[in-house]
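User: For a benchmark we're assembling, each entry needs the component sequences followed by a predicted structure for the full assembly. Here are entry 17's components. Please fill in the structure.
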Amino acid sequence: MALVIVDAPSRVTSSPSGTDARVVGDQPVAARSRGRVVTGHVLLALLAVVSVFPVYWMFATAFRRPDDALSASLIPWPPTLENFKYVWETIPMASMLTNTFAMAAVMAVSQLLVAVLAAYAFARWNFFGKQLLFLLFVGSWLVPFQVTMIPNYLLISQMGLLNTVAGVVIPNLCGAFGVLLLRQHMEAFPHELLDASVMDGQSSWATLWKVVLPNMKPALAALGIMLFISAWNEYLWPSLVLRQSDALVQIGIRSFMGAEGNNWGAVMAASGLACLPIFLIYLFLQRYVVDAFVRSGLK
Amino acid sequence: MFVEVPTSVGGQPGAEITDTRSRGPKWSVLRSHLTPLLYLLPAVALLVVWVYKPLAETVGLSFYKWNMIPTTPKIPVGLENYATVLSLPELHQALWNTVLYIAAFMVFSLVLPVGIALLCGQVTGRWRTFYQALIFVPFLVTPVASSAIWRWMFNPEGGTIPRIAASLGFEMGNIFRDPKLALLGVVVVVGWQMLGFGVLVISAGMAGINPDYSSAASLDGASRSMITRRITLPLLSPTLVFLALMTILLGAQWAYPVIDVLTQGGPSGSTTNIYYLLYEFGFRNFDAGLAAAAGMLFFLGFAIIALVFVRVSDRLSFYDN
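Assistant: Structure for entry 17:
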């Protein structure tokens, strides 16, 4: 298992993704025929349209006037914010978005921090039980969440955290995935630098913060963004914990869909709002996002 | 009492980088053992509390009959839950559907992405990045939202797809209510989301292949398809194995939110999968014992598949060393 996880990233790091000049496992540029290039463009453009059209259609429907919801025109004209206004007034969209943002941020930061500490221990020391502890992490990645959900649900309910965002967050403060990914990065960290810092009389704690982490910023950023995105999109556990509450946006939209049924403009506006933060992250931090998902392969 | 640690372990590799400024050799040995464990403590504690303890509790629950209400007693029933689960027709249907889902997702996460990534090799850098970025967009859509979008796209009244179908002369009903088509509908939604991810991972894998091999082969007169079959795909095999294992292990999870929002497993169980079944046992029928027994069976099943897969793939994978 570990091998498989370890493998995809190491192949990637050997050559940075998006190197433009590189020929992807094919003939050199000069050997390409014109016809192939045209076919390539046509097919890829078609695929891109198929991929993006549903997302475009969501926003197009959301910007139509409510009376025009069934209109088939490609461009919503005249565009209006009425649907968004309606959603904003009907459900507590602002607080749902804030809560979801806070939840995803806390989960991402906590998983990152816990993973940094654990990965550091694995990469820096040999200690008794290292193999066993490592298996503990790999193994937990193999345990499907659905298998542990009933005992977790009972524990959260005993703690009195049902229907709270805290109940969603607490079981997800640590994720094995981050540990496995960071461990790999840290193993690649030059041991000479660690030794030098020991000779300087630095404690292991200071070394971690002053020497190791500053040199791993891209990896940490990528992992952090990825953890944030997957926390934002989390569905099953929130839907169990928040059965009587709409505190998070995924759950809120599900019940909004139930209540508003065929009010498609409004449903699309709510869905669009739920995706917006992730789209913005993608727009501005595209390189990190792509990097993170290429290196990982989770969810 | 802790100072009694034998000093003979002082030669451990960990000891060499521990600073020995303070309090004598015994303390330093102890420290060298404790330090890594302290760094691991938060992660391990959280894993034990939220993964391993519940896993053990699930094993325990699988031998009881219990409706999840704290005041009602748990009745020990031995292996009855396992026997019940194995004989349930719902489980057989869910298992079969899971197999169908995974086979279909393989197309979207593996087969099509390989084709698309090869296609991407035909266009030059900037355009390739642009197409890949657009194909990746669906992956970022929150599952609930993508379910909503596709329900709208497939909606018999005014949805885009039935409209296009009608203009081509087909009459389309609500596919999510049709026992024959509903599973296909779920596959379309999840597949649409997964495609860009597969393309991204495979393109990255291909970018990692040394172009010298194919240049050399083409100088020797190898055709394009020959290069693809003999060089690109074998060198890509670790990436392909990784994606295949991902699809098998996580396919049922990817489908869960879409099933929950769009069909609730219906009509008449045609779209349910094993994880949705687990949810129903536990949180709709409140049969904790049955859910636990089914969960254990699935866990063991997937663990065996994963182990076999890793073994086999070690033999099949071809590395460029």
